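Quick one - first record:
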Amino acid sequence: MAEDDSVAPMEITWKHPVFAFFKDIRLVFKMDSLGKEILTIAVPAAMAFAADPVASLIDTAFIGHIGAVEIATVGVSIAIFNQVSKVSHLLVLQLHLSLRKKL
């Protein structure tokens, strides 16, 4: 360990090139109070973003048993719903940031 108590990077040989991005991940994500606070916000947000495609997939699977016309209408409605939800999320985020700036 170094004299200034900094954490030395690990010397690991990675077999897959994708792991080069995660080489020093423990230096980036520290579990101090700020890291825990970020996780309490990020994990539910990531689960909410993952829930939309899963719900759409389940809808498609159930409606797919009925017929071809019905599955086509579900595809169109899912596309419209995804666009509307993205626009509304953007508007809510902008509103939240503008209110936060005034406080």
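second record:
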Amino acid sequence: MDFSTIGEKLKYLRLNNSLTQEEVGKKINVSKQTLYKYENGIITNIPSDKIEILAEIYHVSPAYLMGWENTSSVPNLVEIIRNDSYTLAGRTPTPADRAYLSDMVDTYIDESADQTIAAHRTDSPSADLPEEALQSIEEFKNFVRAKYKKD
């Protein structure tokens, strides 16, 4: 996706991470109004310490946020999924959830896979998840698909 401003990129990343302006504002120690101003180009000179924290939150590099490189430079999405420092729909995934997501991403981004792979789980790690969490997982899957879409 092409972004003409850092603000557009920040808003896109926030929404794709299912975060509110208030949640992100708290993480970077600014008000939701200030974050709104970042996302809408009212404030364009965003302090470097805020850029660094935003990059960590969104799992991208500061250079990507600033527009100095074209890719988000997330070296290993699977490592992020296996890490327990992220949330989906306000909850930290269980180890079983992380393993399941990791397997899904491994399968999806495996460029050598020329065939459709079918899998069946009998333990259903999402059985105890609320509908909002399942929606967040779907949004995450769509985000990964868009990120690794083959042109």
